[in-house]
Amino acid sequence: MARRTGSYLSSSLELISARPTRSRSLRPEGNGATLWAATLSAVDAAQFAAKWARNTRPEKAAAQSHFNDLCALMGMPTPNEADPDGEWYAFEKGAKKLGGEDGFADVWKRGFFAWEYKGKKKDLAAAYEQLNRYREDLDNPPLLVVCDMDRFEVHTNFTNTKSQTYPFCLADLAAAPAEPLRILRAVMSRPEDLRPGVATREEITAKVAGKFAETARQLQ
């Protein structure tokens, strides 16, 4: 996904100032609820992007806060909330690298992902190579994620499939959040949605609609 330029931070802050109240009494019913939820997600994404674009802290000082904010953005529990013992979802999950050296993933969720953080503008290719060295000792998760607090790269790691990469950045979250949020939701709760060759819900809907349209033409 190409990096977008422009004053996305000022636009993000304008959205934040207009943020709707989360009171249940203001939440619409029926079809309006879908639009309300989508608008709220966009505002939350803009707020997240604006906050972390200003971050100047190094990786070690910021990584867990960054991930916890992502969990809040997605409405999901943090590793410490979901698994206090760190048995299946944890920060700094220890693992053996190829060759026997000790290593660890910054975040790991069994059956979902391993996540490696780097400082801003650091080499994400090196981070991905690092994850690959100990993915086997992390139960070979289906998704390998690398992130420098601004850029995100989600690499698929499904058995017997060619790896595919889903990149996005904070500017994308601020300006057009739908696709980055879809990717993040898949990482945290539905890895199969990113399996190469699996159609998205939008593609399935478009295909079904096309079949209905073709049937209608044949009946005319």
Describe the structure concisely.
This protein has 8 helices and 6 strands, in the order H-H-H-H-E-E-E-H-E-E-E-H-H-H. With 220 residues, the protein is of the alpha+beta class. The chain has a single domain (8-192), classed as tt1808, chain A (Alpha-Beta Complex).
Structural write-up:
The protein has 220 residues and is an alpha+beta fold. The chain has a single domain, classed as tt1808, chain A. Strands 1-2-3-4-5-6 form a six-stranded mixed β-sheet, sandwiched between helices. The longest helix has 23 residues. The radius of gyration is 19 Å and the shape is globular. 27% of the residues are buried. The N terminus is likely disordered.
**How many helices?**
8
CATH architecture assignment: Alpha-Beta Complex
- Radius of gyration, CA atoms, in whole angstroms: 19 Å
Biggest sheet layout: 6 strands, mixed
Query: And the CATH topology?
Result: tt1808, chain A
Tell me, briefly, the overall form. Answer: globular
The percent range for strand residues is 15-25%
Oligomeric state of the chains? single chain
Order of helices and strands: HHHHEEEHEEEHHH
CATH class, named Alpha Beta
Spans of 5+ residues with little confidence (pLDDT < 50)?
A: 1-40
